[in-house]
Amino acid sequence: MPAAAPVARRRGGDLLIKTAFRNVGRNRRRTWLTAGGIGFAVFLITASIALQDGSYVGQRQSATGLLTGHVQVVHPMYPEDAKFEQVVGDVGNRLHVLRETPGVRAASARVQSYALVSVGERSFAAQVLGMDIDRERDIVRFFDTVQEGRVPEGADETLIGSALARNLGAGVGDELVLLGSGKQGGIAALALTVSGIYQTGIADIDRALLIAPLRTVQSGFGLGDEAHALVVVGSDPLASAALGERLVTALGPDLRVRTWQEIMPEVEQGIELDRVSGDFMYGIVMILVGFSVVNTFIMVMFERTREFGMLLALGLKPWSIIGMVQLEAFALWVLGTLLGWLLAAPLIGYLMVVGISFGEAMEQLAEQMYMPSSIHAAVTWRALLTAPLIMLIATQIAAFLPSLRLRRMRPVLALRQET
Fold this sequence. Notes:
This protein is an alpha+beta fold and 419 residues long. Helices cover 57% and strands 18% of the residues.
């Protein structure tokens, strides 16, 4: 007899599971209404988060891909003081080490200074950025913004912004004279020919940035194998912190490694603010759906009072019946989640391939906010699991709270209740 008790309990549990799933199909109208509410929440939130996360991917790639890169290696004092003398030495060997570091896709050196740029009688101050243009093509998309002319190919050529060209009255083929201060305090002078004019849509860049070949700027400003920043790009902007740690290990502690989040904190702060506001709206939707599920199970408790009274009269424990109701809620959640995913899948697929375009009128504003010209959805675990997991908890709570009255239910009174 004692050995038969576990078998009986197991059979009783199997019977409760079968009964719970059979009960889901008894009132199909109520089942589909409840599952439809859950499915709508899963569909809406999954698609919205997928589009939101996709916009974040595009925003990060746009912000880091224009000029910044994922990680920059600089002199320890350069970010705060930014003196011309604070340079990274032995650039050639350090770049070789960087390119051999796991996770590094491309690396290049840059020199940054300021100079007075003149054309005829017109002069304006500008930031001079020396770049290894051939290698930088694998790091940034900046050269895609060239509107007139071409990217510099010769050592004496330069690329200037549209606003700076307008202020100087310069065009493609004109000669610019640059005067600045070299490393040893002497006069730095360069004569460069405009090979191209770029337009990023970001006023501060278009008005003040001049691009020239790295070797030319190093020579003109009295630098040897030195640079102000070593710019590194990895496989993923989100992995920049881990990449930075590997670079510290590879280069040693005498240099400072800065991720793009440190260089442009406003981008990540804007993403976090948008995520919080989005989560608030998603929470409101799930609360509304949760109340509809609560209402469903309150009606279930009143409509099935005689059924529950009969089960209690047959000797079933109140907690066993509560467990059965929880299984019914779980089945409704599974049905609603699958329905929501099926509805969301084609929409997310379309948004991943086609996306949502801002249109030509919004492209310049998008550039200023480090946004791409179109948004594409991205399938992430956050998008797939946020709504289903929250709705699972909400559904189980919605079923549990009304079913607590079973503990105080009297079988005789319950069986007398009219349906």
